[in-house]
Amino acid sequence: MNKLILWLSGILALQLVIAVSLKGEVWQPDTSDISQTIFDFDSNQIDKIDIKDGEQTLSLVKSSGQWVLPDYHQSPVDQNKLNEVKDKLLSLQSGWPVATTQASHQRFEVAENSFQRHVKLFSKEQVLGEVYLGTSPGFRQVHYRLPDQESVYTGELNVYDFPVGQEAWMDKKLLAVKTIEQIQGADFTLSKEQEDWSFSAVNQTQEHINSELDKDKAQELVNAFSKLNVTKISEKKPTAKGVELAVVENGKTYHYRFVEENEDYFVSRDDKPHMFNISKYEYEKFAGAQYQELAKQVEQPESEAKTNTESNS
């Protein structure tokens, strides 16, 4: 009797092992063999990208080796943002679809007449590839569909990586200068000498003689120019004179004008045809650029101070 019970128990255990094994094969298939990138071309082939949200279309175009916004005064595109988006698109891989019927396209918002984004990639006016982006199943994920397929997939993308606002793609640092050799203000000149900065005043007085450059403030001004960030092309043309500064970079001089008018803040540069909006925070980095703000008083020896006092009297 005991042998029979042990024998039946063994058979039962074997059946359980087989059942678990079969269940695993049914519900946990290996998808590694079916995953593949959906686009099979190189990013360097792309010379135009159209992004549509159902109401408007934004175009990014490569012209003379530079990406620009043709409908936004040929403004340069933020190259880092563009490269990141292209890399994400060309890295999209298909796997097991989340849906395979045409009826699901509306539900996931990847239909031809109902989508969150329709992205088209071109090369010499020929369409290289296109994709519909829809709803998000999770953090940094999106449902997508290729136009010639019924299947809907999930990819590591975000719809918000594809804005249709022109200013969202504009290079916000198009006025920044990196290799600064000199900064000229209304009453000062700041010049680079090897790894240090020299300082001089226009119409030098005794007060100027008794002061020297505050190196920290000088570096702050230099950093402000190297990180200058605009927000968009301004629709207004302020009339106030503002603060005028000249910057020499690699032997070329750029003339800047920073303006505050009616609680709006602007900047222009002589080599650009437009005025740009900037934040108040950005404006204030340049508004105080004058000798007295960049200088600090030098303590004189008592004997020298007495001599200066006597000569002045």
Notes on the protein architecture:
The chain has 313 residues and is of the alpha+beta class. It has two domains: 36-169, no CATH class; 180-298, no CATH class. The protein contains nine helices and 22 strands. It has helices at residues 2-27, 79-90, 104-107, 166-169, 206-209, 215-226, 280-287, 291-294, 302-312; strands at residues 36-37, 48-52, 57-63, 66-69, 75-76, 93-94, 110-111, 114-115, 117-123, 126-133, 142-145, 153-155, 180-184, 188-193, 196-201, 211-213, 232-233, 243-249, 252-261, 264-269, 276-277, 295-297. An eight-stranded antiparallel beta sheet has the order 5-4-3-2-9-10-11-12, with no helix packed on it. Strands 15-14-13-18-19-20-21-17 form an eight-stranded antiparallel beta sheet, with helices on one face. It is elongated and about 80 Å long.
